[in-house]
Amino acid sequence: MVFFTRDLYTGTQDNSGRSRRAGREWDRRYEAYSRYLDVIGPYLPRPVRQLAADGPHDAVVRAASFGTGELTLRLDTSGALGSFRGRRPLRLTFRGVPGRVRTRHLLGQWWLYQEAHLRSNGRFSIHVLFDEDELEIEADEVLIAREWSSGTGKN
Predict the structure, then answer these.
(1) What span, in angstroms and rounded, lies between the C-alpha atoms of 123 and 43?
(2) CA-to-CA distance for 97 and 143, rounded, in angstroms?
(3) How far is C-alpha 44 from the geometric centre of its chain's CA atoms?
């Protein structure tokens, strides 16, 4: 995370002893990130812009898998904030992901904040701050879909 670091997030919590100061810094960084998104937004794919602008804050990772350059996250958004809140699970599929991505540690984690970034090779990356970890996902595209309650994955 570049703008919304774990240290800053921890500082904004009421029991940190520095919540007021960290809150002001969070607001400054939020404004800077908003300006940054205004600049890079036209170069990001539409689903990435959607995630960057209004991510699934407080969604819980219920399943995560990685294979052959594809990372899939299944999120419970019943308690999420913003436009991603819903009764049906949200599936994020990142395609063209290089290397390997560890997924087991993501199960049960809460998606807190995200940042979108451009990569020098024309790709994008999404940095996610979870309640207990962070993940940087570099990819060529991301698909956002709601799953049917039967688990069929229809869109």
Answers:
(1) 10
(2) 13
(3) 15
